[in-house]
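Subject — a protein and its fold
Encoding — discrete vocabulary of local shapes:
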Amino acid sequence: MAARPGHVKVMTEAMMREAVALVIRSGSISAAARELGLSRQSVQHRLDAAERAGLAKPRTQSNPSRWRPGAEIVAARKAEFARVRGAGPQATGNIIHRPDDGPFMLIMLGDEHLDSPGTSLELWERWIGFLNRAKHITGWSLGDCLDNWVKALGHLYGASETPAAEGWILLEHYMEQIGEDLDGSVAGNHDKWGGGDLVLGGIMEKYGVIHRADSLRVTYRCPNGREITVNARHSWPGRSMWNEVHGIKRAARMGIRDTILVGGHTHVSGESTERDPMTGKISFCYQVASFKLVDDYADTLGFLDRHISPAVALVIDPRRADNDPELVKHFYDPEPAADYLAFLRRKAKAVA
């Protein structure tokens, strides 16, 4: 009996290997069949025989690659970029909703250095004692919560009675008191040493405080739609021996048109206003000093004492326009600031 075309009685190893190789190279049984000039069924027959003979297994076997395939990397990168862009320091998504349209007060707390032997905790406690969300008085931390000495600077703990571990305990102690009354926080250079900013960020998140590593922009939105924006950095670029607020005012002049611009880091005090010549909008600029009143580093380098107050209280009246110089009033003592706020709110209530 004659053999049918494409059919053989004896299946050789070479035929089986050939079929396996062609399927792998061409990507399909049909393509391999066309190249061999055989039917798909015949090629499948050879593949089945190769499998029974153990010839269909790969020559090598390895663990899965630790790296993601290209398509997965692309998808992950796009998601990462969207997440990073949305969390950017100048993003507009940081919104604090005001409970009413009336005046409110923000206390900008300068560099705290709570564990430093040169820091006045009595002064710190006086300022934070006025924080009270129910009375429309909330606060911001401008960074350097602790000395957080690391590496070569670690020897400075030898001149302090508060070790590093107790510094974090001290911070938690005060956060238990004021955490609910803080709105925003930016980390300082001391906070970021040794990864301390990650710990600080976790503490702030625990109390619902908006925190960023270097800068934070927040919009206070009133029920009537009125918005007041605050742009805070631990350190603004730019220095001048003639003007303590130079870096912040420079930013306002160069296009940062927020209502309030505020910074710390330099342990000096200063204030200024900048008017947009095109719109008339006024930006209120504040350089806030520190609760660290005795600073050996400043003495060593001969820095002049330009410390007016460790914090600044800002009373904001959102009923006033952006071009009104009375929109924001600053105080270097929290008590008269709180009295002024209470007066404004009583007056607003009487008018209403």
